[in-house]
Every structure is written in C-alpha cells, then in structure tokens.
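[Discussion] Sanity-checking designs against the backbone

I'm trying to build intuition for which residues belong where. Below is a structure token string of 127 positions. I'd appreciate it if someone posts a full sequence so I can compare it with mine line by line.
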C-alpha cells in the first residue's frame, strides 16, 4: 500500500503561482510512477502531469506544458506540482496519484492505470 497526502491548495488570483505537494508513504517508491490529476466542477477528471520516481523523467499533456512542472524529492518522498500563470479554468480539486503498473509515462495519463489516490486538495483561481 501507498498512502498519498496532498497539500497546498488555496485561493489564488489569476496570473499567480502555486505549488502543490504530495507526501507519499508506505511501500518503496523506487519503481513507482506518480503524478497529478484534476477535476473541475461538473467535469471529468483529467491528467495533469507524471514523473517516474527512479530517474525523474516527466510527462505532460499539451494542456500542461509551459505552465505546470512536476518534480520529486527523494529525500522526503514528496512530489510537487508547480503551477504558474494560473487561470480561472485551473480551478479544480487536484489529486495526487501513483501506480506501479505503468510501463510508459504516457500510459499514466489513463486514470484506470492508477492504483493509489490521495484525497485531493482544492485550488481556486479567482478572476
């Protein structure tokens, strides 16, 4: 089992920046892929970013490129999502996710590959 705990969600003005954190505990993270999804009100959950824990390689959908950066810290088992130039449409509950099952990073974009979910943290971007 892997336990995930997100933090950092707040109310922020459009154009601002925010960093979310996800603390992981439980099984070894050596072969894990971790990432972020988000779900806006009335919409389906969507993939935001992924990182391979072992080498730190990352993957983003086109919608995240240029504004969002995912990283991980091996020393304290934490994954971060740095978000810049936030827009009101970025308002959502952001979920940390993890899986040992994905072969390629891009496969993690399918939420059905996710084995573990955090409870989510709310990010609200005001216009």
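Best answer:
Here's mine. Compare freely.
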């Amino acid at each position: 089992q892997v336990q995930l705990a997100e933090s950092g969600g707040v109310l922020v003005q459009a154009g601002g920046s925010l960093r979310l954190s996800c603390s992981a505990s439980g099984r070894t993270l050596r072969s894990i892929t971790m990432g972020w999804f988000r779900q806006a009100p009335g919409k389906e959950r969507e993939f935001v970013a992924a990182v391979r824990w072992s080498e730190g390689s990352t993957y983003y959908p086109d919608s995240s490129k240029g504004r969002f950066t995912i990283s991980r810290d091996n020393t304290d088992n934490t994954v971060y999502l740095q978000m810049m130039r936030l827009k009101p449409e970025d308002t959502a509950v952001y979920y940390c996710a993890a899986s040992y099952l994905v072969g390629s990073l891009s496969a993690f974009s399918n939420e059905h590959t996710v084995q573990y979910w955090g409870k989510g943290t709310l990010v609200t971007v005001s216009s």
